[in-house]
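Quarterly update, task 2.4: magnesium ion-bound model.
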Amino acid sequence: MRRLVMWDIDYTLLRGGGVAARAWKAAFTEVTGVAWRETPIFGGRTDLDICDGVFAAHGVTDCTPERFFARYVEIVETVRHEFAEQGALMPGVREVLQHLGDRPDVVQTLVTGNVPAVAAAKVAAFGLTGSFDAEVGGYGTDDSVRATLVRRSMERARAKYGEPFRPVVIGDTVHDVTAALANDAAAIAVATGATPAAELAAAGAHVVLPDLTDLEAAVRALTD
Ligand SMILES: [Mg+2]
């Protein structure tokens, strides 16, 4: 059975340098007319979930996520060049993607809390678009619960390729790990975000890597 490797974006593939967070805050005030007060914890959460939390924290009841996301995406499009200027790829990522990209037994995609257009802008900024079949990904507009994003990706891959895959999730937060486990997927964690390795292991990650600089260890974890 081939592997479906589902990559988280933020702090797994890359860091965006706060560009998306700034666009989020600007869009929020523009669309709702409410000054930004709360800074929620974005890590590992889906954009739908964050949106619900932000609206609730600001007492916003007359705006839909769809209307907010439309403006958010427009603003991100205007500043998308800043991802590569202010952000960075995480160490070893390009080599791991290239290696797996050459293997016929692996399909790589994105499972991210980001809305699809922002996910696409981030990976494009670092020249990674060709590494993923983004069509079979899971995104922050699919559902507020991250485990559902993993399930959607598995369903899309099966429908597109006409075969079941061995699912593998790679991410940097406890949310990625629990979303993988809820779908009986292999949970590979990288401690390149804010979550310590011990916490990722305690959450049930099958493998925890300090980062992706050890190509052999990363490939083994993702394809075993
Ligand atoms: Mg992440």
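Highlight for this quarter: The radius of gyration is 17 Å.
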